[in-house]
Structures are given as C-alpha cells and as structure tokens.
Task: structure prediction
Amino acid sequence: MSVRELVVLGTASQVPTRHRNHNGYLLRWDGQGLLFDPGEGTQRQMLRAGVAAHDINRICVTHFHGDHSLGLAGVIQRINLDRVPHPITAHYPASGEHFFDRLRYATAYRETVRLKQRPVAADGELDRSKSYALEARKLSHPVESYGYRLVEPDARRMLPDRLAAHGIAGPDIGRLQRTGEWNGVRLDEVSELRPGQKFAFVMDTRLCEGVYALAAGVDMLVIESTFLDEDLQLAVDHGHLTVGQAAGVAVDAGVRHLVLTHFSQRYSDPGEFERQARAAGFAGELTIAQDLMRVPLPKRN
Result:
C-alpha cells in the first residue's frame, strides 16, 4: 500500500529544549524513506517514532550547522550496525564535504552498507527514480545551504464513462495506456491529466529566489519559521525566516499544506505561529510541527 507521510523527529532551532529535539524529518514516499537534516539525537527520536534504519534510502542535508547535521554520525553507524540491505545515497552541500567525512568517520565502526556520497554543487536535478525526481535549489544563509524538492511525474486518470462510450474494456484499457492509441481511440480522449504530487523542504534561509522556486505549486511545504514577525530584524541578521514570511511564500506559491518548524527557544506559545501564519493570509491546511508527529501528504487531486 502506498504511504506518503512526514515523520517529524525534531523541531528545535539551534539548541534542543525540554520538549523539542534538534531537527530531523523522515519523508515516507511509497517504499522509499528520505531523511532530512538529522540533528543531534535523531537516532533516539527514530526509535521513539517507530522509524528503523532500514526505512532510510536517502539522506538530504541542507547545511552543516550542528542542529541540522550532528546526528549524522549516529545515524550512519546505526545503518551499518543494522546491516541495511540496500544502498543509501547522501546529498549535502559540496562545500561541506569535509564536515560530512568527519561525521561519517567520527569513531571506529565496521562498514557494512554501501553509502554513496552525492554532494550538491549547483541548482538542478540530483536524481530520478520511477516515483519522483529530486531537485535542489540554493538558499541564503551564512553557510552554504540547499533546499530540496520532490516531484512525482504526471500521470493520466482513466475516465470510465468515456471508455465505455468507445467500447474499451478489460485488457484493452492496459493496451491503450501502454501504446497511447487503440482501435483509433487516443489516450487523451478517454482520460485526463493527474498532476504528480510535489514536496519541498526549506530550512535555514532568508527570503530568496530559491525559496520560491522550491515552494512553487507543492502539495506540502516543510519550511523553517524560526522567528515571529516582530523579530524580523533578528531573522534577517541571522539568515532565517519569520512565520509571516514563510506563510507569505506558501500563499504566493499556491501550497496546499504548510508545515512550519525550526522554532526559536525564545517562544513558549506555539499558537502564536498559527495566528501569525493565518494573519499573513495562508488559508490552506496548516501544521505547527511537534516532535514525533506524523503528517500525511494531501490526497492527490
């Protein structure tokens, strides 16, 4: 059965709190698992959330600040300890390859898994599988940072009434889908386009072109909202977004489900993030992320 959901492992900015772990997010996409920004404590959060090392197929790191990457050492060693049977691909900014190497080999362990390092050096497509293409866009932060975007290929939805009107049934439907035409009937005459789902992951950044490119038309946008709107200057100075900026991006980009995360420890009322996101005009589905939360992707259109 197809499962597409976000498992939130941690939501804190810079330092963990009593209620929030360092960052960590696992996207379940059908049979694949993409682990984003494993901060310190991610391995324990995986255990608490029911996520196994075997669930990970790809690791995507936005940048090499500790709250987004210090968990790599433990996660990589756990992958090898559990002898995950499939290869795992890791993406991260190319300028931080020395940080990745240090974390990968932070202590002694036995390597049993093929971990492929695929650093990101420029905007564009990183990889493609049957169910999605993975893209990256550069962000604006004091250290080099990239956001990630998954795009499912468009498909076609068969229309039973039109099939019946043309006398197409049974195995002939499959033949029509494979060839694009059957007995003089074209595929577009008996079907309609079903846009593929899209997901974007945007962490530490100021507003920039990359943020909008990643968010454009996505079904789910996971985005940092480190500061409330009254602390805009702090956000600008430190290379972050306010909740109003993040929500404004979602409005402009036509996002269906907005997931806000990466909250500064200075705030004690999560409800204020929801209030300011709504005040910025976002009317879609909204989640203020909490540790160990599971958030399903919106149903396909």
Q: What stands out?
A: The chain has a mean pLDDT of 95. The radius of gyration is 21 Å.
